[in-house]
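Researcher: I'd like a structural prediction for the single chain below. Treat it as a standalone chain; there are no partners to consider.
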Amino acid sequence: MPFITQYNCGKILRSVDYQKIDPKHFNQLYKQNIWILSYKEQAWLASAKLLFDDPSAFLKEAYVKNSPIDTKKFVYEGNNPAYHEDKNCDRIKSNYNNFEIPQEIIHKGDREIERFRKWFKSNHKLYEDNQNRFLSRLQATFFLQNPPNKVTGSNSGIVEFNDVNISTLEDEIDQLMEQAKLFYFKSDVHQNTIDINGNRSFFVAKSAKKDSIIYIWHNSYKEKLKEKLMHYFRVKLNPDLEFSGKLLQTLNFRECNQCCCSIDFSKLAL
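Model: Treating it as a single chain, here is the predicted structure.
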């Protein structure tokens, strides 16, 4: 079955309308009430659990279809992400590589940006074989004073969950919730500060001191709880991030042109 990388799973979860999520899902998130999280944070977790557990329901109840964003700043941008069929696909293992479009090109407008991209892509093999020659031709073609900067990043890839014990994960979540409760009831000042700023701790903690109540509340408890619950949902419901091809196409994914076979997923059920 087709699967996606961690990064692209995160992109799907960034296309969520929190207002669409039925609050009934909040009661089904975990065996106890995760009261330390805000409505929006619980809605986000509920959408993640839906995606792993019932992708069709996720489409109906949470997902908002968005077109890929093109900032016009990079050569490779605005394309739909790919799904894979082979976990050993080179595209999964290779690092992210892109190139910034020089400001000289950007200032000339969209037509010149597209011309630059088209030339860059059609001559990419020359870049791999002889970078100096490639850059000389590029500068001569576009009269550039500054060559494009290369941007690299590690590929999120896939994560194998071997011998992960669900009970152990639950114990870790329960312990964290108990620690958060003790921190909240530590003093009246703790309670008042968290009651006032807890739901918007993300914004308040940005400018707060690292030893402040709200900074500790947000980073040591809320963020860690969200991370552990996401881990828990995935391990329990869909550890390999596998989804049907038709569903992924509905989510604006395309098949990897290296590892995917030519299958007509439109004939397959969600």
